[in-house]
Structure formats: structure tokens, C-alpha cells
Amino acid sequence: MDFRHQIAPLDALAMQPCDALLVVVGGDAADAALDPLLAEALSDAVAQGDFQFKAGKTVYLHRPAGVKAARVVFAAAGAPSAKSLKAALVAGLGLIKGGGARHLAVAVSGAGPLDASFAESLVAAVHDAVYVYRHTKPSAPPASALAKVSLLCTKPEAKAVAQGLARGEAIAAGVALARECANRPGNHCTPTFLGEQAKKLGKEFGLKVEVLDRKALEKLGMGSFLAVAQGSDEPPRFIVAQYQGAPKSQPPIVLVGKGITFDTGGISIKPAPEMDEMKFDMGGAAGVLGTLRAVAQLKPRLNLVVLVPTCENMPSGRAVKPGDVVKSLSGQTIEILNTDAEGRLILCDALTYAERFKPAAVIDVATLTGACVIALGHHHSGLFCADDALAGQLLEAGRTAQDSCWRMPLDEEYDEALKSNFADMANVGSRAGGAITAAMFLRRFTGKFRWAHLDIAGTAWKSGAAKGATGRPVPLLTHFVLGQAG
Ligand code: BES
Ligand code: MN
Ligand code: ZN
């Protein structure tokens, strides 16, 4: 998709050469600056009862008289905000994407000056509208004929709009990578495949990428990660990818992503219904690799390290059993009471590994608990962070990226649930507060750096008719990382 900005006055939109014109309208009446031909068409649509200046309302006009574009869509945002403008874009695109238009021009009226955030929203909305998963279904028809999008703006807006488009494109490429990985089934997206994807990114963007195998993990002493991996014939991998945009001496941000390429639950096996969806249990890994891609394209002045422990969680004659005690890389022992609580077991060793980078902050990202889905549903990712400043930055990044998270508690009291008579800790507590006790488990491995945990179990994936990966939290993480540059 080709995105560009174009300086074009709002009062001459009828002359705009394009196949389709999408006009997002804010406020509760037509903007006085709007092209008179379009203003007339719009007021007629209102008079006929086909349009209202209310968020979510749209109207499609085919070849309105005197207008160059064959298709014109008005989409109302109501009171303009970043969120309502994006919703209007999504609604408007819904009327255009399935048609024959190749070149779309987008204009905004009655919403104040255009900013970078709107441009970014446009790129995200277009990519979302046209994405089709094809890897194992090459027969899937394209969602759209769209090939080119022009965002119309004024001269003073142009710089911010161009920046927003560039940032949007980098994030969209990261989101696409994350979606593509998470959508691929477990027999395609294996730990080996994820390792290859990381190597590929390394080649493309000049990153340092190492992929450690089982032997190397044994040598390091990642007993907790290896315990999960031992039940599968599919070999585990540990990905260490580094983007260097600042002097080596500058402490990096470290992102850690859960990379369970299929979660059967292991010996504590999951029920059959919907188990197929556990192919997306590497959504955290996909999210941090996607973020790495976005950051590497935008080249901010900072250092970023991405760590991905990746393996399958399978039952077998060699699989770890409930009650088994393993020794983590940190030296702490863990009684594995439930083999389905495997995410924390692979993450804890990756968190300990992160210490060697003396990080400025470590964020881990994981489809960690069903309990988080129960608590927050599918809108907000769960944010667990004892550091108020870091939590504030992540919440803010989520808001501006329109990929939000919601802060959850992390009080010491919850730690008691993890007591074990046979090891330093158990890997599960009771059902109560399951997302929080999972975070408390991870917290025991994070004493040496500033740390936050994102539980994306409810946000990385959609069930139902639109079943598939969302690419979240790539936008949130990319905004957060960019915000750390000097
Ligand atoms: N990958 C799952 C969590 C999950 C569930 C993600 C639903 C997305 C949708 C995780 O490994 C898991 O099985 N967690 C258990 C933890 C329990 C055994 C303490 C859970 O949530 O049931
Ligand atoms: Mn599990
Ligand atoms: Zn899992």
C-alpha cells in the first residue's frame, strides 16, 4: 500500500483526482470551509434522512454531480477525538474497501488541524481493512483493490502528517508481522520458524540476532524453560535480538515475549473445545518481534533487546509432571503444580537472562492467563507494574497508540498464594486473582531492574467470525519504546 500526504484545500475537494473520496466530518454541522458542491450533497443527505452528524453514521454517494471522484463517502466522528476520528475512518473504509476503487483520498473537515496521530490511525485502519491471511489458504480472495491512499492536508499540517504516516507504516509492518506469525498454525509457526523470522529481521535491518538451541539452554541452566520444552519433539529456541541506535554504553530497553507455539496444557491437559486457538500462545513473541521491526525501521536513538523463549507445551512420556520440582536460571526452585501454567516457567528464565544487559527497563509480554480475559475482556491488555513512572509511560503509550492497557494490582499480599512446601515457590496459586498471582510469580525474577508485565491473553486474538490475530500490542510497545529516545 502506497501512502502519501498531499496539500489540497478543503474548498476544492470536488476537483480532487481519485477513485474514492472519504470525508471524515467532525462536529454537528457541515464545516463552512467544505467544498460547496460536497456541502450541498451532504446537506441533501441530511435532509433526506440518510445522514446525521453523529459518531458512527456514514453515507455513500455514487458519482455525485460535478465531483471528480466516482465514489464519495462521508463518515461522521461526532465530537472529534483521536478515538472518534479513527472509528469514523474504520466505518468509512468499510463502505469503500470492497469496491473497485484503487486510489483513495481522505480528507477531514470540522475536526481542527490534522496531526500525526490521525495520519497514523489512517495507516492502521487501511492496513486492517485490507489484510488477508493467505499462508495456508492461498485461495483467499483479496479484501480490496485499494493500492494508494492520499491524505489531504494543509501546508502547516504537512510535516506532522508525513511523520505520522511514516510512523504508521512502520507500526503497520510490525503489526502485519505479528499477525502473520500468530495466525500461522502450530505445524508451521514452530520455535524453529520464529528463530528464522528473527534471523531474517536481523539480515534486513542489520540487527545482531542469536538463536540458542537446547544444548545452549542446558549449558546456561535454564531448568524452568527446559522443563516445559522437554515434553515436545519440536526443539526449543531462545532468541536474542539487538537493535543498536545509541552508544553501547546506553542501557537498553529489553522486551521479552512468551513464545509457546502451541499450548496443549501438557499433562494438565486442556479441554478439546477451542484448543486450536492455543496456536496464538506465541502472541507475546510475535508482538515483541513486530515491535523490533517497527523500531528498526524508524531508527530511534536508543538500544533495544528482544528476548523470546519459544517451545511447545505438550504431554508425552518425557513431559514434566505435576509435582515435579525444577531449578530456574536464577537458582530459585519451582514446584510445577500445574503444567498448563507454562508461560511463567519459560518467561522467568528469560527475565533472569535479561539481567546481563543491565537494562533501563524490562517489559514482558505474554498471553499468560485466562483470568486476565475474565478480568478485562478484549479491550485493554492487563498491565502489572510496581513502578508508577514506568506504569504511567505504558498507560500513556497505550492511549496515544489506541492500543490501551489497564493497570492491575501487584501487592505483596498476593505473593502468599505461591508458597510451596517442596520448593522456593509453586507455579500456581488458587483460581482467585489468577492474572495477578501469575504476575507475582514473574516478579520474583525481576529484582534487578525496572519491570512491567503485559498480559495480552484477551487482546492479541479475536475469536468468533473474525477469528485471528490482532497484532496487539505492537502499537503500544512501539510508542513506548520511541518515547524512551532522548
Ligand atoms: N496460554 C494460556 C492462557 C490463555 C488462556 C491465553 C486463554 C489465551 C486465552 C496459559 O498458558 C494457561 O493455560 N494459563 C492457565 C493458568 C492456570 C493453570 C493457573 C489458565 O489461564 O487457565
Ligand atoms: Mn497453558
Ligand atoms: Zn500458555
Task: Describe, in short, the structure shown.
The protein is α/β, with parallel strands linked by helices. It contains 13 helices and 20 strands. A hairpin with a 5-residue loop joins β19 and β20.
Structural summary, described in words:
The mean pLDDT is 97. This protein folds into two domains: 152 residues, Leucine Aminopeptidase, subunit E, domain 1, CATH 3.40.220.10; 311 residues, 3-Layer(aba) Sandwich (Aminopeptidase), CATH 3.40.630.10. It has 13 helices and 20 strands. Helix 2 runs parallel beside helix 3, helix 5 packs parallel to helix 8 and helix 7 runs antiparallel to helix 9. With 486 residues, the chain is of the alpha/beta class. 34% of the residues lie in helices and 21% in strands. The longest helix is centred in the middle third of the chain and has 26 residues. It starts with a strand and ends with a helix. The protein is elongated.
How are the SSEs ordered, and which strands pair?
Layout: E1 2-7, E2 20-26, H1 36-47, E3 58-62, E4 71-78, H2 82-96, E5 103-109, H3 116-130, E6 148-153, H4 158-183, H5 191-205, E7 208-212, H6 214-220, H7 223-229, E8 237-244, E9 253-257, E10 259-263, H8 283-298, E11 303-313, E12 325-327, E13 333-335, H9 343-354, E14 361-366, H10 370-376, E15 381-384, H11 388-400, E16 405-408, E17 425-426, H12 434-443, E18 451-455, E19 461-462, E20 468-469, H13 474-483
Parallel strand pairs: 1-6, 2-4, 2-5, 5-6, 9-11, 9-14, 10-11, 13-17, 14-18, 15-16
Antiparallel strand pairs: 3-4, 7-8, 8-11, 12-13, 15-18, 19-20
Zinc ion is lined by residues 260, 263, 281, 342-343.
